[in-house]
Write a structure and sequence with these properties.
Helix content: 55-70%
Shape: flat
Oligomer: single chain
Number of helices: 24
Number of strands: 9
Distance between the termini: 33 Å
């Protein structure tokens, strides 16, 4: 905040202010100390001062005079750790990861200097200390540090150093495989990925790493066709296992996409290529939802949609694919989505009804029917019936229950909505998931609805508002923005829905 304030009140940029502070450090040894703290500070990690003293060959009594005093304030901070004489210690950290990254880039401008700093740190870390072990594991699992090297040889060398300190680490093998894959050395990528999976055969991340390495190896036209097919078959199985283990992990779907692209690149049949493109798109649409709209999946979706051309072209292609595979539910979902996007809601509903006849237990089809009938202003009973069927076939989906509760509440069925929200009140989920807004009360044109009302009740950290003239209640948590509100005060607010029901948001007094 201090740096930001100075940036606003001076002509200097943020980076220039940080560099200037570093340049003003009077002691060369203090600059060197801060450089090493910044190396790990980019990951928002701290460094034990004993490690730093060993790296710089300093005595304990030099900590305050030569290290902390010259760098105090904007650049570096220290804190005690531990609660007893057995684990008490002191660690140093950068004021902020952005500040650390600016200093590291400035004081270690080339790969050789960066490697020298990181190698010195790694050499002096002791895995016997929990803090050092945690630091080693974080450096291993996160790629920010290794990605600062432009030379792949030094990326390899860094993991070789870590492997010597943490022999047998699956994550070291995994990241070494990733580096080899980036360098297009498929055989080495496969070898290291197999070593990682040997350490933990059930780790879905390791499975994806091996799957991607095998898919790369299968691209080699010089390989025997049977061996290439075996590689693709093994990779497909690994990706399927990974998705089954964790449907929210985007990389299993990316792996499946690579397998399909592999087939697209080898086919000479235009119709088969078209079918494979549709299969890719339908799989990614499903993955986009399963991964909570992962940006990785979103990027691949955008590329694929661009490849299919305009929406009209895409619908034409999908319709042809649907005729050839009339029982393929993924293609049905895709046709429904495209028809709805084109404003052909009645056509989308027709396809959804056909899909429901093919698979009446599909919760996605039932949810789609509920949404389409809702768009067409269907009866409350019919919409709710489809939501109930979707929930029945997908128990435990909090978002689905909240969607139904929000629909009933917006329709004025407040008692029914309360029963729906009460049904998930005791479900074991994290606080973040429980408070996550999954629906907003919107107008028919998509704009967020704004209500007038009054503060009905305030009790400790909570409160209730009443909308006028709609006459419904909504709960809210008192916070910095609402702490001064009083009972009976006129307000304006919006409404969102989470697992707790209708929540008043953006509350503002009406003056």
């Amino acid at each position: 905040m201090l740096v930001a304030l100075r940036e606003l009140t001076t002509a200097s940029t943020f980076d220039d202010i940080v560099r200037n502070e570093f340049d003003k450090i009077p002691s060369a040894i203090a600059k060197e100390a801060y450089l090493h703290v910044s190396a790990v500070g980019q990951l928002d990690l701290s460094l034990r001062y004993e490690t730093l003293l060993r790296v710089l060959n300093l005595r304990y009594n030099q900590l305050g005079i030569d290290l902390l005093t010259p760098t105090e304030g904007i650049l570096i901070s220290g804190e005690e750790t531990g609660a007893s004489r057995h684990n008490i210690g002191y660690r140093l950290r950068a004021r902020h990861p952005i500040i650390a990254s600016i200093i590291f880039a400035m004081a270690a401008p080339d790969d050789a200097r960066k490697f020298a700093v990181l190698n010195a740190l790694l050499t002096n870390l002791d895995p016997g200390f929990p803090e050092d072990l945690r630091l080693l594991n974080e450096i291993t699992r996160r790629r920010e540090l290794v990605n600062t090297f432009s030379q792949y040889a030094l990326r390899r060398a860094l993991y070789d150093r870590i492997a010597a300190i943490l022999p047998g680490s699956g994550h070291v093998y995994q990241h070494r495989s990733i580096i080899e894959r980036e360098m297009k050395d498929a055989d080495e990528a496969v070898r290291f990925a197999r070593m990682a999976l040997k350490v933990d055969s059930s780790n879905p991340s390791f499975q994806n790493t091996l799957g991607l390495a095998l898919e790369l190896a299968a691209r080699d036209d010089q390989r025997d066709s049977l061996k290439r097919q075996a590689m693709l078959s093994e990779a497909s199985r690994l990706f399927e296992d990974s998705i089954e283990h964790n449907r929210a992990d985007a990389y299993g779907y990316i792996g499946r996409l690579h397998i399909i692209r592999h087939k697209i690149g080898r086919t000479r049949d235009p119709e088969e290529r078209e079918e494979l493109l549709v299969s890719s798109l339908s799989m990614l649409e499903e993955a986009f939802e399963a991964t909570n709209e992962s940006p990785i999946i979103a990027g691949e979706l955008a590329k694929l949609k661009e490849q299919l051309g305009s929406l009209n072209d895409a619908i034409t292609i999908v319709k042809r694919a649907s005729k050839k595979s009339p029982t393929d539910m993924r293609i049905k979902h895709l046709l429904i989505r495209f028809s709805a996007d084109q404003g052909q809601t009645e056509e989308a509903l027709k396809v959804a009804v056909e899909a429901a006849k093919l698979d009446p237990t599909s919760w996605r089809v039932q949810r789609t029917l509920a949404r389409l009938r809702k768009t067409l202003d269907g009866s409350l009973q019919s919409v709710r019936g489809h939501y109930d069927a979707a929930i029945r076939h997908n128990k435990g989906d909090i978002a689905l229950v909240v969607e139904l509760g929000a629909y009933l509440f917006v329709k004025g069925a407040y008692d029914d909505a309360k029963k729906v929200f009460d049904s998930i009140r005791n479900v074991t989920i994290s606080g973040q998931e429980r408070s996550k807004f999954r629906e907003l009360w919107r107008q028919p044109d998509g704009r967020i609805m704004v209500f007038d009302g009054k503060i009905k009740r305030i009790a400790g950290a909570t409160g209730t508002v009443v909308a006028i003239p709609q006459n419904f209640d909504a709960f809210f948590w008192r916070s910095t923005g609402t702490s001064l509100l009083r009972e009976g005060q006129n307000i304006r607010f919006t409404v969102g829905f989470n697992s707790q029901g209708a929540i008043a948001r953006d509350i503002r007094p009406i003056r």
